[in-house]
Structure formats: C-alpha cells, structure tokens
Amino acid sequence: MTERIIYLDNNATTRPYPEVLETIQPFFEERYGNPSSVHQKGRDAKTALDEARATAAEAINADSPAEIVFVSCATEANNLALNGSTKQVNGTTPGIITSQIEHPSVLETCQALEAQGAATVTYLTVDENGFIDLADLRDAINENTELVSIMTANNEVGSVQPVQQIADICKENNLLFHTDAVQAPGKIPVDVQDPNVDLLALSAHKFHGPRGIGLLYKRKEIDLPPLLRGGGQEQETRSGTEPVALAAGLSTALDRATEQCASVSDHTGQLRKTLWRGIRDRFGDTAQRNTPGSNSLPNTLNVSFMNKAADKMLINLDLEGICVSAGSACHSGAIEISHVLQAMNVSEEAAKGSVRFSFSHENRMEDVHRTLEVLGEYAP
Ligand code: PLP
Of the residues 203, 205, 216, 325, which should be mutated to test ligand 1's pocket, given the most ligand atoms within 8 Å of the CB? Predict the structure, then answer.
C-alpha cells in the first residue's frame, strides 16, 4: 500500500468538507432539540432547520424554502417523486416517460408502478454517447402521459442530458418534469428555474455533505402523497423527526459546492484531460472512452480497457492505494454488465473492461501521474 490514498471514486461518494463536520457537531452536543418541541431546545432546533432549508432553497434558486423536502437520500426522493406525481383520471392509467440509463431508484420504481398497474412507462433509448433523442421524447408523449423523469447527469459515464430542451417540451405539453440531479452539484450548475423543473432529487453525500440525507425539490403547486406517514413533518410530505444535524450539513455542503462549482470543474476537467491523454498514449485504440467529449460531467472519465477485466484492475489499483470503480458503485460487488453501457450499445467485452474515474477538488495532478504509472502495467 502507498501512504496516501488516491480517491478517484467521487461519483460514488465524497469526503465531507471540514466545515460540514463543524456545522454538524453542535447538534450532537448542545443543540439536540426536536424541532417540534415548543421549549427553547426545540425552538433552537427549529431555527437551525429553517436556516438549512432556506440555504438549500437559495442554492438551487427555489422560490421558497417550503419547496424543499428533506428526505433520507436521493433514492427516497426519486421514489417519492415517481410514486406521487401520477394519478388515475377516469380510469386511465397515467403514463411516465423515463430513460434506460436512469439510476435503479428510478428504474425499479417505474417497474414497480407498472407491475401494480399504476402507470405505463416508456423507457427512452440513448445513443452511443449516452444521450436521449428529443424526437423520441416528443414521439413518446401521448394523452395519458403525466410525468417525464430524466436524470440531469449520468453517474456511470457522466453524460449530461439536454435538460433545458426536455423542460421546454414538458412545458409545451403540460407535463411534470422530474430530474434526478444527484451527480450535478459542484460539477455543473443546478438551478430549478433554469431549466424550469417541477421536481428534483439530490443526495448530500455526493457533494461533500453527510450520508443519510437528501432533498426533493417540489414546486409549490405540486401535492405529493407521502411515502412515510406519521407526524406530518416536512410539509406533510415526509413524516419522521427531522435530522437537523444532517440538514444543516447538507445545506453547508450545497452552499459551498455551488459557490465553488466553476473553479472545481476547471480543476477536475484538467485532471480528466491529462488522465485521458495519458491513457491514450499508453493504450492507443485498446482504450475506448465511454464518457462523451462534450456535455459531460467534467470530473468523470469512464474508459473501457479492451480484453481486460475491470474488477481485477480495480483490485490491483486498490492494492496500490488508488480507489476507482468498475461500473456503478451503487451495484458494487455484483459483476453484472452495466445497464448504462448496455443501453449505449457498448460491446460486452468493452463493458467488462470499463473503469470509472471520478475526481473532486481534493485530487491533484500527481494523483493522475501516479494512476497512469500503475495503469501503465496493463498497457499492451
Ligand atoms: N441517482 C444517481 C444518479 C446516483 O448516482 C445515485 C447514487 O449513486 C442515486 C440516485 C442514489 O443516491 P443515494 O444512494 O444517496 O440514495
């Protein structure tokens, strides 16, 4: 093992910013009140929760803090959005349009709704760069369609969808637009007015916040039936005593990630460029880039090393202190071909050799050089 761990798996999770830890700490010491309690401890917690909500709302340009629903993670936010935003009208089954490359928290929720007869779902295909075709979206809309759910950016390959145009098409057709924007904060701008979205999911641990909290942005006109019923917290949309510490940590992280987005994106973009050039120099055509050259998350590089087993490379890189992922970390452990690469028509052989490198502000150019040195051992 080398001394310093080179962590290149920031699309899986991130290290919390130091100020997030500072923000959280007092809530496990003196500020332990329940925001529903009327005494001073409760009022103090309520103030902190209100502040966290206001900061989060401002960071994504929401009209009002009331549009922020704190939930446990983006998986819950996606479930809440999809389960609640379609309804049967006069016996017709509502329609949802999504894509084949969504995170399982969207895909499996859609499949469950179909199985219950609660929705019909169209899964849009993507091209070889991981982009949906807007003409396909238009074609898929019919009189029963109520909701379009397309991710802002893909976690495995980093393709950034044309969300502005998707939002426009939804508006023209009077459809709700939900976007899983989990991979966006700190990498590309997140602004719920531009493009105009109705529902948006985030998870704090993806942008250097704490694990165990996410949010669903919900435009104020939208009423969602809760998944969790009980005390009516979070505007009757998500019951359960609010994790004030985590909400405060989320808002600190979102604020900082948003503020530093441009400079961090420049930095990670440089690292990615050097890494890809170095891989091309060493591997030539036996390395295939799965991340699109434009309209992609600047921190993400997904590469297929032909005739190599990515899971074995991952273990060997790990032994050298370099953390990467083979396919999506959300399915770690399972050596199944990524549904994203399959949808992009990547061959089975290339998909098995696919490694994802994902940078953060913490990475340095020397991390890239060291990674290239270790990768060089695999060069043909
Ligand atoms: N959506 C995307 C695009 C993701 O990358 C992830 C996690 O990898 C999720 C949703 C789910 O996030 P969480 O596991 O925090 O619920």
Answer: 203
